Amino acid sequence: MTLLGAALCLIFPVLATGTEYTGQITGDQTFSDGDTVHVTTGPAILHDWSKNKVPSQTISGTGKIDVTAESGGAISNKYTSGHDPFTQTFEIDLGTVTGSSNVISNSGNYNYNTSDSGVQTFQNIDKIVVTSKTGAGIVNSNGGRQTVNGKIGSIETSYDTGDSTAKGISNTGNGNIKLDNSKQYIHSVGNIGSAEARFGVGILSQQATHQEIGSVGDIYARTYGIQNTLADIGDQIIGSVGTIDVGYANAGKIVGAAIYSQSNTGNTVDNDKGGVPLAGKQVIGMKGDIKTLNAHGIRNLGGVQEITALRQGGITIDAQGDESLTDTPVYALAVKSASYNYMTEAHADTALKGSFDIAHGDVLIAHEVKNGVINRGILRLKQGDTTYEKSDGTVGVDNTLTLHDSTFQVDKESILEMDNKGYNIITGKQKIDVQGTYRGNGTFIFRSDNTVLPSGTQQSEAATIDGGPVLLKTVTRSDSGTQSTVNIQYGETGKYTSDNVQSKEEAFSLLKGAANKIYVNEGIENIGGGQNAAGKVYMREGKIHSWSANYYFDKTGVVQGKDGISESDYTWEGTIDRLEDKETSTMTGIDASAMINYFAWRQETETLSQRLGDIRNYPRQQGGWARVYAARSKYDKGNHYFRNDYRALQFGYDRPVGNNGWIMGGALSYTDGDSDLKNGGDADNWMLTGAVYGTWHNEKGHYVDLVGKVTRMHNKYKVISDEREFETKGSNSNWAYSISAEYGRRFQNRENGYFAEPQIQMTLGRIEGSDYKTNNGIHIEQDSINSAIGRIGVAFGRQLEKGSYFIRLDGLHEFDGKMESTFREDNGSPNRSHIDFSDTWGEVSVGGNWQFDRKSFGYAQVKRSFAADIETQYRVDIGIRYLLD
């Protein structure tokens, strides 16, 4: 090539078009990037034992190739007889693969009873296009094993006249439970079909096969989105699917379902055939919604079916029928066995994991009697497998089924099971009719029928309950043997709280009305605490109200005819006779921040040695002193929690007064703290304290220490409620006062310096109350706190030439210490809190004194509490005293 030619190639590069192969490829072949195989009659690439007796075919090369068959399939691996294994392997990526039927196919041979009778393997495929209304995009059959290790970008049909019966993906077997049946493994697939050109069936697994697909994009189909039929011992496992859109207008009848599963053998074992497990199973994860027209949403006609909502907040099932619909209702969820095989049991067992919103379509869980054997319908509502992080950083789990106008029916031989870890059903306008068996741990949520106003705003008209009753014909214990749970919530989560109802009378009426919606015919002894303590009926907590009651069961004869229920239908009806307005987590968080101030103030009630060291070693000297200390305190009891790390600087001056052993002085201290509150809340606090003291001692070892203090304290906090629904910020300041008297006597061995020193102390104090308002409109009135703390202790130690050391054990008791607060919103009713700080606890302290020189002394002490409600996890004091001449 000349220099000019090379330059022109650089400036105007020529795009490689590759080589076009127009003849059928039946052996090994190496291609280059951009090559195409285009034949009039397919397959374009064929591996067939009957044609060339070659056990394997390898298609290799670089880049990718396109394959087209104008008629018939494009790629085929067909095993008839003669050699195992029989393999077709693509070591090159495929671009667009086009054919009129069974575009990519793999077939084994059951007579050889091995899945290696036909093995087909691919890497990546950009697109598969079906040009006729029959066949499939990619199909595996007759005991073969087909694997796509990479991704199929999309599977499309160009046949868009509206009557396609083609499948996007197909895996079929023959249903013989002893054969190693067809196996299909696909790593991932993009969209299957489109809104303009739908397949008849998106994904099919039929007759005892194993089909496993990692992920699928959106599916558009006319009759079935995902179909697992005659599963028997086979299973269909799809890790995640986007939206499933199924159906077409003017169908005249229901023609299919978005997700369909049917196994003649249910989930039993065939003992007549060597104990083969007959676990016909369908497992699907959904990332998108389910939308159908003239087709059911989810349908199970036998076997095990598990559908998991993978999307945070759950998925929506919208199953609708148009005016041309002439047969039975459209079901969003239908679980009813319809087997015809020889097996004695074929229960239809469906589990919904996570949250599902039934926008349209009914729910039916029903049984079938076949040859005198009852095949039950079973619906298991379970929490999702994975947690997710909420916007505020907390962890949530999806576990709610939401109904609107749908009917919900469980017939007399069928079962509704709620997850033992808890599951919610938001009821709709229709009744929840469980004529069969209920078991597990469930909460039924009734909506309010009027407009929800902002929290703390009274409703302009009385709210009532929107929705039908919950009818539970028979309640049993859970599968684990524990009591079943039936709790009741009024108002949807996130839309309604107790603060929306400011009147206790209205709250009582609403919660009683909600309890009255629960009817049970038999088995009340299996619910909660039985007839007299069945469960909870409540509204979700607001900032300052949390309405709840324990409901019990009463005979239904007193309300005969209500909700269309008579005494002859159900024996028991839920009701309440008492109502509680519990302290909310916002209230307990605010109270916890106030407790920090109380405890930090209480900790300033020190002993003489803690404040001044062993002052008796220099009784006639005036001087100044300074002390620092750091500590951590913690309270975790009931619904209150805090952990406070605080530091303090204190300094003072004192001098002898007269000749009778008294020393008088004064001190000033500043304490600063940082606190952790529950649910990620926090607080900052400080105290400024002025003190005067007088200390007396004599040569016989007696001493008295008197202290009076005035304190100004301030607290600023952020409180987060348990459900992270409310964040409250506030600050307040208080004055506090205390007086303390301590008496002790030292008994010392003059020869070796060992001593014992019993002590007794009493401290009286008061923290004044405060009134203030938080950032979100809560008015708080904190009452004053009176405190009376007694201490009795004994110190053991040794006096040295230039210092001393000791260990002290103390027992303390708070005789008073009650804190009460009132919380209210504007124009709302109040709620009160009460905390009792009365407690008995112990403390252990280790410390000592040391003389550095004639005028300076140092002292230190370490302390912690035990058996205390409010723990001192550690406190370290270090001080120095300097004497003046």
Automatic annotation (TrEMBL):
InterPro entries: Autotransporte_beta (IPR005546), Autotransporte_beta_dom_sf (IPR036709), Autotransporter_adhesion (IPR051551), OM_autotransptr_brl_dom (IPR006315), Pertactin_virulence_factor (IPR003991). It comes from the Bacteria. Pfam families: Autotransporter. Coiled coil: none annotated. The keyword Signal applies. The keyword Signal applies. Keywords: Signal. Residues 617-884 form the Autotransporter domain. GO terms for cellular component: outer membrane. Residues 1-16 form the signal peptide. NCBIfam families: autotrans_barl. This is Autotransporter outer membrane beta-barrel domain-containing protein. The lineage of its organism: Bacteria, Pseudomonadati, Pseudomonadota, Betaproteobacteria, Burkholderiales.
